[in-house]
Each structure stands twice: as structure tokens, then as C-alpha cells.
Design brief:
five-stranded mixed sheet; 179 residues; alpha/beta; Rossmann fold
Length: 179
Amino acid sequence: MPGDMTRRTGVGLLLFVLAAFASASRSDAAQQPIEAAVFDFELIDTSLQGAMEDVRPDEQKRLALISEQLRRELAASGRYAVIDLAPARDRIQAAGYLHGCNGCAARIGRSLGAEVAITGTVQKVSNLILNINLQLWDTATGKPLRAMSADLRGNTDESWSRGVSYLLRHRLLKPSEPE
């Protein structure tokens, strides 16, 4: 009997130590930032103004501003490591609009070593009504992982920036709920 107790205690201790190591390695893995290819936002202008006029420089500037904002805030979060897209610039340009290229962003991201690809669009319905969309793609499978959207009122630097901030805080970087 005393030998049984020692054996059970030893087995219990071994299981406890193994569980502790498994838990520690899971939390270490959870702490590793996700390698992300974060592509520039694209404009989908379905407004009457867009149909009648040429590309607006102020909106092109805003696309660049929010693309940089997204990359900067993702990197600052520590949850994502933003990969340099420069080696794939030719492939990105050849793809045209990423929102309509049948998952090419995931393939390009995979070629750069990213775990996820992040694409974004700003849909302009009118100068008052706009929508910012983000989509995350699994680069291993090419399938979409998550999609999120925020409605905006007003076509200004501030409204676009607030839309991206909202998506980051309340969707993409929102702490996960306890299971």
C-alpha cells in the first residue's frame, strides 16, 4: 500500500509538471506576434461624384494615411509583427485591386513569410456616407479568417482615422473573451 501511494503521488506530480510546461509553452506561443502582411487600403468609389470625376488627391492621401496608421497601431499592439511588403511591390501592382483578385493577397503574404494577410477598403457611397472594411486572410489556406466593417459619416482625415481606430479597438485588437 505505501508503495502505491508513492507511485500515485509521483504520477500526480509528473502530470502536474507536464501540465505546467504545456501551459507555459501555450502562453509563450500566445505571446509571439502574428506575422502579418498589411496591404494598403483601396478605395471603392460608388458615389455619383466618383462616376463623374477623376480620382481625388485628398482621398488618395487619406488611403495612405490610414494604411500607415493600421500598420503602426498593429505593430505597437505587440500582437502583430508587420512584414515589409517592398519585396512584393511588383506582384502587388500586377494584381491590381486586391479586393477583387480572388485571394491573391494571401498568396503574396505567404510568399513573404506572413501568417496572415490584411486587406482593407474604403467604400464611398457619397461624400457623407463611407464604409471602412478590413479582411484577414490565412496565408496557409488562402481562406478569409475575419471580416469587419465600420460606417463613417463625413469624408475627412479625422473620420477615416477614427474608423480605423474603431476597428482596431473594438474588432481586431479587442481582448478575447474568457472561454
